[in-house]
Write a structure and sequence with these properties.
The protein is mainly alpha-helical and 236 residues long. The protein has a domain at 67-230: hpI Integrase, Chain A, CATH 1.10.443.10. It is built from eight helices and five strands, in the order ββαααβββααααα. The strands form two sheets. It has a three-stranded antiparallel β-sheet, with no helix packed on it. Helix 1 (67-78) packs antiparallel against helix 2, helix 1 (67-78) crosses helix 5 and helix 2 packs across helix 6 (188-200). It starts with 41 loop residues before the first strand and ends in an 11-residue tail after the last helix.
């Protein structure tokens, strides 16, 4: 009776090096856009079904900094080797709720120092707007630009004098967080911090949506719904 080899055969392709393999990234892994709630799962017959949160896009873990913590982070940024640049970058990212790519891709032409305006080009099809700059932002940007003698179009440069990368931004934010005693901080926390701080001051949700460039107001509503200011006076 013939016998058959049950050992799985390996394709020649499996033994070839992966030409598309990437080097490990220094950036932290992307946060999932949908999380499973900690609630008990529901059993149906032999199958087990996870119980999802009502709003799957909402987060159950604090991923933002308070106003006081942001002040500490900005102070920590000033203490770095390129403190003037780092402080300006983190301040602008926080105040305008910039994604890390939106921040590092800013151009000099996006900045109007005389008019006190910054053109914010949003990713993910979001609303791009011209946004006003506060006095401390203008002072920080002017101080940083005075350190520059180049004519490169990028608003923020790396230590090598080229355009800043996402990895550069992740590194300097992480270092600033450690100097400030805040533990692990990543750039996207600055965007969330912007949303939470503005919502906590009572900013209208529609206005906040346009400021952050959200296409879907449900993402903005998360900040408004979780703002501690909403719950003040409940026990009066």
């Amino acid at each position: 009776m013939p016998t058959f080899d049950k050992t799985p055969k390996v394709s020649n392709l499996d033994s070839q090096p992966d030409l598309f393999a990437q080097e490990p990234s220094t950036a932290p892994p992307a946060t999932a856009t949908r999380r499973i709630d900690k609630s008990p799962s529901i059993s149906v017959g032999k199958h087990k079904r996870e119980q999802l949160t009502v709003d799957g896009h909402e987060r159950h873990k604090r991923d933002f900094l308070t106003k006081g913590e942001m002040d500490r982070l900005l102070a920590g940024a000033r203490q770095g080797r390129f403190g003037v640049r780092d402080h300006a970058l983190l301040l602008i990212s926080f105040r305008h709720g910039l994604r890390v790519t939106e921040a590092v891709e800013l151009q000099r032409q996006d900045l109007d120092l005389d008019g006190g305006r910054l053109w914010v080009s949003r990713l993910k099809g979001g609303l791009s707007t011209s946004q006003p700059l506060q006095g401390d932002e203008l002072r920080a940007l002017r101080a940083y630009l005075r350190t520059r003698s180049d004519n490169l179009p990028f608003l923020f440069l790396s230590s090598q004098g080229s355009s800043m990368t996402r990895q550069n931004a992740h590194y300097l934010v992480k270092q600033a967080g450690e100097r400030a005693g805040l533990g692990s901080v990543h750039p996207h926390m600055l965007r969330h911090s912007c949303g939470h701080v503005l919502a906590d001051t009572g900013t209208d949700t529609r206005l906040l949506q346009d400021w952050l460039g959200h296409r879907d107001i449900r993402h903005t509503a998360h900040y408004s719904r979780t703002a501690s200011k909403r719950f003040e006076g409940l026990w009066r």
